[in-house]
């Protein structure tokens, strides 16, 4: 809950299968899975969200990550192949970037990591343009592309 976020797992496996899986993880690692896991045995939810890749499997979900905002709008989808696990640091980086963008009204450039400068929106008027390029608050590459430190 550090990021005001709720993690939920979902698969087409049965509830009994989930219980066995969670318990096995605990027995082998000592880790308690701290989030709910939804059993969608009939595939209603996973099909609605396109989590079955018919060209790969008709009964196994691909490794999807959905970031859904508080209004229920999907803001990002990451899809990993069945053969590869998710990259948790990237998921956290993306969530952090999205929350920062929403909170501060800024954008994050490619390869952005927490603590890096962010991109501020382009000016809407000529007066804003002049204010921006003469301000020491921004590091401007050009009048329309300026960075600033948030932290």
Automatic annotation (TrEMBL):
InterPro entries hit by this protein: AhpC/TSA, Peroxiredoxin, Peroxiredoxin_AhpC-typ, Peroxiredoxin_C, Thioredoxin-like_sf
Record-linked SUPFAM superfamilies: Thioredoxin-like (SSF52833)
Gene Ontology CC: one annotated term: cytosol
Top-tier EC class: oxidoreductase
Peroxiredoxin C-terminal domain span: 97-133
Enzyme Commission numbers on file: 1.11.1.15
Matches recorded under Gene3D superfamilies: Antioxidant, Horf6, Chain A, domain2, Glutaredoxin
UniProt name for this protein: Selenocysteine-containing peroxiredoxin PrxU
Species of origin: Tissierella creatinophila DSM 6911
């Amino acid at each position: 809950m550090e990021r005001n976020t709720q993690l939920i797992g979902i698969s087409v496996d049965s509830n009994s299968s989930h219980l066995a899986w969670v318990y096995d993880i605990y027995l082998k690692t000592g880790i308690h899975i701290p989030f709910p896991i939804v059993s969608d045995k009939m595939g209603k939810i996973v099909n609605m969200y396109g989590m079955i890749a018919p060209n790969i499997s008709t009964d196994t979900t691909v490794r999807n990550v959905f970031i859904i905002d508080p209004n229920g709008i999907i803001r990002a989808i990451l899809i990993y192949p069945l053969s590869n696990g998710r990259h948790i640091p990237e998921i956290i980086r993306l969530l952090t970037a999205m929350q920062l963008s929403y909170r501060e009204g800024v954008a994050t450039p490619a390869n952005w990591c927490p603590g890096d400068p962010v991109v501020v929106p382009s000016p809407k008027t000529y007066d804003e343009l002049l204010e921006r390029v003469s301000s020491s608050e921004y590091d401007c590459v050009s009048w329309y592309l300026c960075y600033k430190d948030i932290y």
